């Protein structure tokens, strides 16, 4: 499914509408990019979308080269227009597309489309193998609490954010649709999976249901 169909919007609206969907969107992406070493040479962006996170990473590490992977050909064209010659773009699925060797791998609001734990674990293993020793994987995504009552509070906070733009019914409909189409793993489960692949993983940022996980591969 394309990003536009998933969100029920026209693709040209994406960069404006995403802020109405995701709380703390700007802060989350700025915080994720801030984890990149300014001397980074190669960055792989999984699910690059329109290139919003990649552009921020390039401001932090201006000499870096970006390889962006996405299964949505139309959104890749938006990334191409934004990033120009600074990025090489690959049309493919994250589970099967080639990952070049990299100093950093990043993802934002993309890996929750991977439908099962085994598939996500396999992707994390591929990321680990692609990274140079000392490299970092930065993932900004929806990572709810495992405890039901806390998860309910987090979901209410997300609903309240949507209500700034949409009616109560529309906000509720968005959350129901996304919960059917997306696969949100609890934060603790994500950390366990990353550590099982060999990463030194920690939470770098958290607001409600959203978090940034910083996972480092040990230096040689």
Provide the succession of SSEs. Answer: HHHEHEHEEHEHHHEE
Q: Based on CA inertia axes, which overall geometry fits?
A: globular
Largest sheet: 7 strands, mixed
CATH topology: Rossmann fold
Uncertain residue segments:
none
Q: What's the CATH class, please?
A: Alpha Beta
As laid out across the biggest beta sheet, the strand order is 3-2-1-4-5-7-6
* Name of the CATH superfamily: Vaccinia Virus protein VP39
In DSSP terms (H or I, runs of 4 or more residues), the helix count works out at: 9
Structural class estimated from helices and strands: alpha/beta
Number of strands: 7
CATH architecture: 3-Layer(aba) Sandwich
User: Span from first to last CA?
Assistant: 40 Å
Strand percentage: 15-25%
Supply the number of structural domains.
Answer: 1
- Please give the share of residues in helix: 40-55%
Assembly level: single chain
Round the mean pLDDT to the nearest integer and report it.
94
